[in-house]
Every structure is written in structure tokens, then in C-alpha cells.
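$ run holo --ligand "NAP" --emit C-alpha cells
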Amino acid sequence: MKVFLTGATGFVGMEVMARLLERGDEVVALVRAPDAQAAQGRLDEVLGKLWKDPSPYRAGASAIVGDVTSERLGLDGGLPEVDAVVHCAASIEFSLPLEEARAINVEGTRRMVEAVRSARVKRFVHVSTAYVAGQTSGRFGEDQLDIGQTFRNTYEQTKRESEEIVATSGLGAAIARPSIVVGESTSGWTPVFNVLYWPLNAFKRGLFDEVPVLLEARVDVVPVDYVADGIVALVDRSDEGVFNLVASEQASTVTELVELACRRFDRPPPKLIDPAAEGGGAGAKHGAVYLPYFDMELVFDDSRTRELLGIQPPRFRDYFGVLMDYADLAKWGKRGFARDEANERALSAAS
Ligand SMILES: NC(=O)c1ccc[n+]([C@@H]2O[C@H](COP(=O)([O-])OP(=O)(O)OC[C@H]3O[C@@H](n4cnc5c(N)ncnc54)[C@H](OP(=O)(O)O)[C@@H]3O)[C@@H](O)[C@H]2O)c1
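-- output --
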């Protein structure tokens, strides 16, 4: 199969690319760069993050220069002939001004949809987020999108807007909605240490005097291997509509996260304060953009995904130790290991 992939230089996209290449598919990646050589150079760098020796995969991975904010994605001749398109590219910054976030997430997705339509590609998988649910509570289903919700940030808002473009495109697209994505459950490997890693590292370093969270809030986290498995399964299927790639009922509560972190870092529990109150010390002020994700009373429903894809994520507490082992090994992002090396190390540590 030949797959056109956006966002291959990003966290989720590179794990998807790894799976496609490992099973023998061909990947054509849209990469932002000044010229073709630089684009291929960027993609080769990503292959080096995935494999100590990426040479067996080089022939299957080609880059084309493009940008989702450019007319026709910056591709003179339109999309190359491919069997499927996976659109992972987005800005995941929470604090981007609305119009900047829209230019990438909304208009970028509109251009992808137009390109897929013109090229008559049979399969289109759009990567959205479970947080299109915004600031709602209760259950949020795979059949729901616009329920009059408000949003924590421009990221959530623009991902909701982009999802609507795909859902109403008539292309029969599959929409994958992961929740908070962390490293691989098998090895802990991750090239980025944001959202969940940030407060954990701050707690480890004693930066949190007080934590403004709701104890019973659920923090829905999924490992990137589960997310990539789901996306690749969607490439192979023809079902349209939304697939929540989430922990759902199994999502950890803040209480459980705090217990896991206290045990791991051998620290006493932090003082927990009302999220609406001022406080949290230097740590909380610095990580303010992430804190709204620790006071949610929301369960993402994933019954359709479990039924149609037959997959289910591991429980966070079962791979939390693996994530933290890798975070320590990688010095919380100061150094990195290739994905296959991280897997080998995890295997040998377990045996
Ligand atoms: N990470 C999570 O926890 C999470 C959770 C739920 C959903 N998602 C979704 O998963 C997808 C991938 O997220 P991620 O975590 O992998 O993000 P990421 O690591 O920040 O990667 C973003 C990717 O998008 C590319 N990109 C950004 N702007 C672009 C543009 N104008 N034209 C072309 N490419 C552009 C980036 O390319 P450059 O390298 O050139 O910047 C990069 O490859 C997104 O759709 C996101 O909404 C992520």
C-alpha cells in the first residue's frame, strides 16, 4: 500500500510511519522544508529516531515539500497517486492565537480534503482529538461533535472546526480521536515530554507546593503504540465516522495518578487545592496551560472503536513504570534513544 502522510515529523505521525514501513507499505510524507533535499533530510532524521539503523526503511519513505497552509498544500501537481491519506499534521500548541491555529488546523484540513477529493483517493483518515469535547462533562460519544461546548484553548476549538470539515466532506473519511498521547506502553519511548510528563517532572523535582486538581477527575491517557495501531487499522478498513482512541472507563483518576507518582518518586502527597483557587506555586503557574486537563469530569465513549476495531488500550497503571523508566533514561527529553533501541532496553530490563 502507498500512503500519503502529513505530520510524519511529529510524535504521532512518526509512530504511524514506523508501523506502515515495518509492514512493508510505502510512505510519501508531506514535509515543511525549503527544498526537496531538505525535506528528505528532515524525514531521514525522523527515521534515525525510529531505528538505530534506518537503512532498511529508507527506500520506502520519501518526502515531498509542502505546507498545509499553502494553496494546494504547496504541491504543484496535486497529491501523488496513493491508496490512502493520513492527515496527522496540526498545531498542538494550546496558546496559539485563534487565527494562527485556524490557518493550520482548519484551513490546512480544508486543503487536505480538497486534495483528497481531486485525487479521488479511496481512503482518508483524519487525526482529530477526543478534546473536541471541550469543557463538557458526563459522557462524550463517538457520534457527538457539536453540543454547544466551550473550549479550554484555541487548539481544541480549531480541532473541532477541522473535524466538522472532514465529517461533512462526503469523502467517507475515518476520524481518529486520541485523548492524551504518551510514550509507547512497551518501551516508554517518546520523542516529546509535554502534557502529562510536564506535571510529573515538576512533581518529581519538588516544584509543586500545591496542586490545583480535582481528585475524582479522570485523566484520559493512551500510549502512542495504541493510537498508531488504531490509525493503521483505520487505513485498512472502509468504515467512516469517528473512532475514539481513548482509555474511556479505564482512565485513571487524579487520585490514582498522584498515588502512582508519590510511590515512583518517593515523595509525600502534594497539598491538593480547588482548581478554581489561585495557587499551586511556581510549578502550577508555569504549567497553567496543562492544568485544565486535571479537573475534568468526562468519560469518552469508545464502544464503537472497541466493537469495530476490536482493540483496547492497556491500563495506565500497568505501563506507568515503563514510561517513567524511559523518561529517566532519556533525562526527560535532554537525550533520546531510537525507538527500537528503547524497545530492546525495555525487553532486556524485563528479562
Ligand atoms: N500528542 C497528543 O497528545 C495528541 C492527542 C490527541 C490528538 N493528537 C493529534 O495528533 C496529531 C499529531 O499530533 P502530534 O502530537 O504528533 O503533534 P506534533 O508532534 O506537534 O507534530 C505536528 C506535525 O504537524 C506538522 N505540521 C505542523 N504545521 C504544519 C504545516 N503548516 N504544514 C505541514 N505540516 C505541519 C509538523 O511538522 P513540523 O515538523 O514541520 O513542525 C509535525 O510533523 C494532531 O492532529 C493532533 O491534534 C495529538
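-- notes --
The domain at 2-342 is CATH 3.40.50.720 (Rossmann fold).
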